[in-house]
Amino acid sequence: MTDMSHQCVIVGIAGASASGKSLIASTLYRELREQVGDEHIGVIPEDSYYKDQSHLSMEERVKNQL
Description:
By secondary structure, the chain is an all-alpha fold. The protein has helices at residues 21-36, 58-65. It has one domain (1-66). The chain starts with 20 loop residues before the first helix and ends with a helix. This is Uridine kinase.
């Protein structure tokens, strides 16, 4: 058996809106938590990177995307 005590695995989940990304992420989290424990798992939601631009005009928002 391979010693995995110092290995790191990153899993990215992508897909269209309402395609089940959050469901897959929460299912994976629950399953892995049972196997390896909470202290070895992290979840970084894409919403953590969202920058609110509601105070900008649509023209300014488009400029920021380029």
